[in-house]
Amino acid sequence: MIRKLNRIFQDYMREKRLKIGRYIWDRKEKKEKIVAGNFIEKNSIKSILFLRYDGKIGDMVVNTVMFREIKKQYPSMKIGVVARGAAKEIIKNNPYIDKIYNYEKNSKKIKKLANEISKEKYDLLIDFSEMLRVNQMMLINLCKARYNMGLNREDWKLFDKSYSFPKGEFHIVEVYKKVLEEIGIKNPNLDYDLHFTEKEKQNVEVLLNNFRDKKIFVLNPFAASKHRDFNREKIKGIIDIILKKENRVVFLIGEKKREEEIENIIKEYSEDVFFAKLDSIMETAFLIKKADFVITPDTSIVHIAAAFKKKMIAVYREDLNIEVKNKNLWSPNYSGAVQVFSRDLDVKKGEESDINKFKLEEIDKIINN
User: Fold this and answer.
1) Which of 304, 73, 80 is closest to 194 using CA atoms?
2) What is the mean pLDDT of the chain?
3) Which residue, 334, 73, 36, is CA-closest to 186?
4) What homologous superfamily does CATH list for 198-368?
5) Domain assignments of the chain as residue spans, ordered by start
């Protein structure tokens, strides 16, 4: 009861904070009118700043489409990206990005970052937030780009240009395609774009050196929410299914904090099951590139695998309304991947459903067909 009341209070206060924040920061001096036609060319856009401060790996993987397609058509365009956490790793080797800015959730550091960015005088700022928090409003205001562009911002003074989601069911990449078309990039290539250092490649090649004659299966048991983590029974069940046939090896991936948990499962197998001890998300991405098959409940890994069109089983929940949308919005979106759905019929209203209500028989049929 106390927890429920606290949640109601926090929701109430959040709404108040957002209203106050918008009152303070939703303003911008409009010096120039937008000229119709190809937005980049007609409005002399020479630099673009992308705001990706959510830290989401999967979103950043999809966002790589935009960096490449803009640079292909406008090689001299300056591209900057505000990012944080592991999402920065996804783009640190990207040849189409000129500068990466580190975002931290601290108002003083945000003001300092905005001051740094404002001195570089970006022509266009593109924000991808569905809901703007106060610190994000402040950042956009203080960056002082010539034009600000955002999602469904028609009634905001802070934004000069707005875009909306496509109609009906759509995949997330269609949003990025729509933004590209809004600024003048027609018929873009929608393949994702990941780049690796030689050291990252070498570290993975060393890991795989003794398994050149085997099929490499990458199993990612974990996701951002504990309700989307595979449990021990499902992890072991999937491993057993993979090892039904010879000449296969299973590499489990996960953050270092999950190592002990994974090792406790691995010790039940005498061979062909390993924890991939890698140093970064990019090394993990290169392991996925080298793999023959990927299994995951996490959309970050789904999008990394999609960059290389790997054979994949992606497990999604299908019992909540939001997941009905997610199975399309965040789907693998290519023919080499199969979606398997967890149907938690016992979940109570207001609770998060369990990813583990899928049938191992479905996994078996796909892998060993």
Assistant:
1) 304
2) 92
3) 73
4) Glycogen Phosphorylase B; (3.40.50.2000)
5) 18-183, 198-368
